[in-house]
Design brief:
single chain, 2-enoyl-CoA Hydratase, Chain A, domain 1, N-(1-d-carboxylethyl)-l-norvaline Dehydrogenase, domain 2, about 10% strand, binds ligand LT2ZWINM, EC 1.1.1.35, lyase
Length: about 725
C-alpha cells in the first residue's frame, strides 16, 4: 500500500507501507501508481516526496512474489511515469534503499538520504540483475566503473559514499522527510529536463573494451559459475554502448534468462533460509520465541591457539570485555601480539579504533571467576577438555555458561564434568573464527533452552550465521564431511588423481576441492581423529586386510601420507607439493602419482577412467545421504539448517543453494537411484546406502523442501 497526504500546503507526500521493509509488492506498486497520479493531477500540489514508513525507504521488489504469478503494475513503466512527471519528485531515503527501492529513487528527480541510510543494488546476490532500469540509470549517473562495482557485487554503500559517488544529492542528520519536503518546496516549478537520468548520455571511458574485458575476467573468476554477475556486466555494457531504450531491452532480455533460472531459485532460497535458521527449535519443543537469552557482558576464552585467538577477536569486536587465558607464557605472548595485530588490521579496514583495551590476558584460569560465559578452545583432546571443564566448574560463579569450541567431541560428556550440565553448549567456530560467518551452536540432551538462546544471540552479535544443532560426533558439518572425504579417497584408489577430483568439485563451484582443502587444514587433523576412532594404526587389529576396518571398506591413503610427514601446506608436501612449507600455491606432485600407482599395484587394484560426473555423484550424494540421516536423527531441525551450515562454513556454492536444496533440484528420485547404483557396486560402503528418510520422501512423491519437515515429523512419530 501507499498512503497519500498533502503537507506544507503544496507537497504531495507518498508513504510506502508494507512492513517490515516496505517491499514493492503488487499492492505497493498499485499504491504508488495511484498516489503519483493523484499528486500530479492535484493543482495545489507543486512537488512530490516519496518516503517509506517506519524509518525504512524500501527493501526492493517483494522477493516472495518471485516464485508466483506476478500481478499488479510492473515496476519499469511505474518508474518511467515518475521520471516523466512534470512536477519534481524527491525520494526521502531513510534506513535502506535497496534493489527496486533504489531503482525507484533513481527514477525520482532528487534523492535526499539520512546519514545512517544504506543504498545498493543487491539483485545479483539473488541471482538477478537490477531490471527496473538500474543497470541503465546508475552508469549514466555515476559512471561505468562505479556502477559496475555496485551492480556486480551488490554491496550496500553508506549515505556518505552515496553522496560522494553522486547517487544522492543531499545527506541529512535530521528528519529526512522534513528535509525532503523543504527541498521539494524549493525546487517546485524549476525545469526538470536535466534531472531525468534516463536522458543522460552514459559517460564512455576511453578504454571501454579493455575495461569490460578486465571486469568480465574478474567477475567470472570470483563468480565460480554463478551467471548473474556475468549478466550484470553485459547489461551495463549495453548502457555504455547503446541508447537508453535499447539498453532497457537488453536489461529485460538478460533478466528473463536469470529470472527463471535454478540459480535464482537457489539464491532466493538462501536469502530466506539464512533468516529462517535464527528461528531455531530443539526436539524437546524449546524454541527461539519462547526462550529468553541472558545478557553477556564479560566473556572468557581458554586456550589461545589459532581458534582461541580468532574467537577472542570476534568477541572483543562485538564490544564485550574478554579475558583471554593461556597457561604457556610463550604462547600467551605470541597470542597477544597476534590478537592485537588482527584487531588493528580489522579496525583499520572498518575505520574505527581497535578494541585492544577490551581484552585482558592471563596465565591463570582463576581469572575467569566472574565472567558471564566461557568459551573453551584448548587442543582437541577429550582428556584435556574434561580437565578444563572440571576446573571451570569449580572456579566460575554459579550461572556461568560454559561453552566448548570442540569440532566433533561429545558436548554432553563435557557437560557431565560440571555441576550444571544445563549451562553447557558447544559453540563450534570455523577458522579463522573472526572471519568465518558460521557458528554451530550444539545442544546436548541436558542443555537448557536459555543456554542455547544465549549462545545464539551472542553469535548474532558477532555477526555470525548461528545454527542450532544436536550433539553427535562431528555435529552436522563435520559429520557430513566424513562420507564426502571417504569417497574422495576411494576414488583415488580406483584410478582418480587429487587434481581430477578437485577440478570436478571446483568446477561445481567449491572454492577448493577436497584435497586442496585437506592440504590447507592439515592432513594430521583427520589422522588424529582416525587414530582416536581406532581406525588408523596402531589401533587396527593385526591380521585384518589393510583396506577393511571395523567391517567396512577403509582407505589408509591419508594415514600413509601422514606417516611420511606429508601434512599438507605446513610441511610443504601433502596431496600436492608446495615451494616451501607454508606456501599456498599447490603444484601437482609426480611423487604422489607414482605413490598411488604403487599403492594400487600392492593391493591388486586396477585403475579405471573416472569422470567428473562420477566424482560429483559419489562425493556429493554420499554427503547428501548423511544430511538426510541427520534430519532423520533430529540433529538438524530442517534442511535449511544443513544448507546454511554448508554455504557459510564449507564453501558450498551459494548459487546451488546448499546440499539439501541441491538434492531437491537434482530430483530426490535421481539421488536415490544413483546412491542405490553405487551402493550395489560398493556394498562394503555403508555411507552409500540410501537412508530411510530419502526412501520415505521419494515414496511420498518427492515433496518440495519446505514440506520435508512434515514427512520427518511423521517418521519420528512412527518410531
Ligand atoms: C537490509 C534489509 C532490507 C533489512 O534488514 P534487517 O532489518 O536485518 O531485516 P531482515 O531480517 O533482513 O528482514 C526482515 C524481514 O523482511 C523480509 N524481507 C526483507 N527484504 C525483503 C524483500 N525485498 N522482499 C520480501 N521480504 C523481504 C525478510 O525475509 C525478513 O522476514 P523473515 O524473517 O524472512 O520472515 C534486508 O532485509 C535486506 O537486505 N533485504 C533484501 C534487499 C534486497 O535484496 N532487495 C532486492 C530485491 S530484488 C529487486 O528489488 C529487484 C528489482 C528489479 C526487479 C524487477 C522485477 C521484474 C520482474 C520481471 C520478470 C521478467 C521475467 C519474465 C520471465 C518470463 O519471460 O516469464
Amino acid at each position: 500500500m501507499a498512503k497519500y497526504s498533502r503537507v506544507s500546503g503544496s507537497v504531495g507526500l507518498i508513504t510506502l507501507q508494507n512492513p517490515p521493509v516496505n517491499a514493492l509488492s503488487a499492492a505497493v506498486r498499485q499504491g504508488i501508481v495511484d498516489t503519483v497520479e493523484r499528486a500530479l493531477s492535484d493543482p495545489k500540489v507543486k512537488s512530490v516526496v516519496i518516503c517509506g514508513q517506519n524509518g525504512i525507504f524500501c527493501g526492493g521488489a517483494d522477493i516472495k512474489e518471485f516464485g508466483s504469478n506476478m500481478s499488479g503494475p510492473p515496476l519499469v513503466p511505474m518508474i518511467h511515469a515518475i521520471e516523466a512527471a512534470n512536477k519534481p519528485v524527491v525520494a526521502a531515503i531513510e534506513g535502506s534503499a535497496l534493489g527496486g527501492g533504489l531503482e525507484l529513487a533513481l527514477g525520482c528527480h532528487y534523492r535526499i538520504a539520512h546519514s545512517k541510510a544504506r543504498l545498493g543494488l543487491p539483485e545479483v546476490t539473488l541471482g538477478l540483475l537490477p531490471a527496473a532500469g538500474g543497470t541503465q540509470r546508475l552508469p549514466r549517473l555515476i559512471g561505468v566503473p562505479a556502477a559496475l562495482d555496485l551492480i556486480t557485487t551488490g554491496r550496500h554503500v553508506t549515505a556518505a559514499e552515496a553522496l560522494q559517488l553522486g547517487v544522492v544529492d543531499q545527506v541529512t542528520d535530521h528528519s529526512t522527510v522534513d528535509a525532503a519536503v523543504k527541498f521539494a518546496q524549493s525546487v517546485a516549478g524549476k525545469p526538470l529536463d536535466a534531472r531525468r537520468i534516463s536522458t543522460y548520455p552514459c559517460p564512455r571511458p576511453s578504454d571501454l573494451d579493455a575495461l569490460f574485458e578486465g571486469v568480465m575476467e574478474k567477475v567470472r573468476q570470483s563468480a565460480r559459475g554463478a551467471i548473474a554477475p556475468v549478466a550484470c556486466v553485459q547489461a551495463v555494457r549495453a548502457a555504455a554502448t547503446q541508447p537508453y531504450t535499447q539498453g532497457m531491452e537488453r536489461e529485460k532480455e538478460l533478466m528473463a534468462t536469470l529470472f527463471t533460472s535454478g540459480q535464482a531459485r537457489a539464491l532466493q532460497y538462501c536469502f530466506f533460509a539464512q533468516r529462517a535458521v535464527s528461528r531455531w527449535s530443539m526436539p524437546n519443543g524449546a524454541r527461539w520465541d519462547t526462550s529468553k537469552p541472558r545478557p553477556v557482558h564479560k566473556a572468557a576464552v581458554i586456550g589461545l591457539g589459532t581458534m582461541g585467538r580468532g574467537i577472542t577477536v570476534a568477541l572483543a569486536q562485538t564490544g564485550l570485555s574478554v579475558i583471554a587465558v593461556e597457561t604457556q607464557e610463550k604462547q600467551l605472548m605470541e597470542a597477544k601480539q597476534a590478537v592485537s595485530g588482527m584487531l588493528e588490521r580489522g579496525a583499520k579496514r572498518r575505520g574505527v579504533a581497535p578494541a585492544l583495551d577490551r581484552i585482558s590476558y592471563s596465565r591463570d584460569i582463576q581469572a575467569v571467576a566472574d565472567v558471564d560465559l566461557v568459551i573453551e578452545a584448548v587442543f582437541e583432546d577429550m582428556g584435556l577438555k574434561k580437565k578444563v571443564f572440571q576446573q571451570l566448574a569449580s572456579i566460575c560463579r554459579p550461572g556461568t555458561f560454559l561453552c566448548t569450541n570442540t569440532s566433533a567431541l561429545d558436548v554432553d560428556h563435557l557437560a557431565s564434568q560440571t555441576h550444571n550440565p544445563e549451562l553447557v553448549v558447544g559453540m563450534h567456530f570455523f577458522a579463522p573464527a573472526h572471519v568465518m560467518k558460521l557458528l554451530e551452536v550444539v545442544y546436548g540432551p541436558r542443555s537448557s533452552p536459555q543456554a542455547v538462546a544465549t549462545a545464539m544471540q551472542l553469535g548474532k552479535k558477532m555477526g555470525k550465521i548461528s545454527v542450532a544443532v544436536g550433539n553427535c560426533p562431528g555435529f552436522v558439518g563435520n559429520r557430513m564431511l566424513k562420507p564426502y572425504m571417504e569417497q574422495a579417497f576411494f576414488l583415488l584408489e580406483e584410478g582418480a588423481t587429487p587434481e581430477l577430483v578437485d577440478r570436478a568439485l571446483e568446477e561445481f563451484g567449491f572454492p577448493m576441492g577436497v584435497f586442496r582443502m585437506s592440504d590447507l587444514s592439515g592432513l594430521d587433523v583427520g589422522w588424529r581423529v582416525r587414530k582416536g576412532d581406532g581406525l588408523s594404526e596402531p589401533g587396527a587389529p593385526s591380521g585384518q586386510p589393510a583396506r577393511i576396518r571395523q567391517g567396512r571398506r577403509y582407505s589408509p591413503l591419508g594415514d600413509l601420507l601422514c606417516e611420511q610427514g606429508r601434512f599438507g601446506q605446513k610441511t610443504g608436501r601433502g596431496w600436492y607439493q608446495y615451494n616451501k612449507p607454508g606456501s599456498r600455491v599447490a603444484r601437482s606432485d609426480p611423487w604422489l602419482h607414482s605413490f598411488l600407482e604403487g599403492y594400487r599395484a600392492r593391493h591388486g587394484l586396477v585403475a579405471r577412467r573416472i569422470d567428473n560426473q562420477e566424482v560429483l555423484e559419489r562425493c556429493l550424494y554420499a554427503l547428501i545421504n548423511e544430511g538426510f540421516r541427520i534430519l532423520e536423527d533430529g540433529i538438524a531441525a530442517g534442511p535449511e539448517d544443513i544448507d546454511m551450515i554448508y554455504v557459510f562454513g564449507y564453501g558450498w556454492p551459494r548459487h546451488r543453494g546448499g546440499p539439501m536444496f541441491y538434492a531437491g533440484m537434482v530430483g530426490l528420485g535421481k539421488v536415490l537411484e544413483r546412491l542405490e547404483h553405487y551402493h550395489q557396486a560398493h556394498p562394503d560402503v555403508p555411507y552409500l546406502k540410501p537412508c530411510s528418510l530419502l526412501w520415505r520422501l521419494v515414496a511420498s512423491g518427492s515433496p518440495p523442501l519446505h514440506k520435508w519437515r512434515e514427512v520427518i515429523k511423521k517418521l519420528h512419530s512412527q518410531l
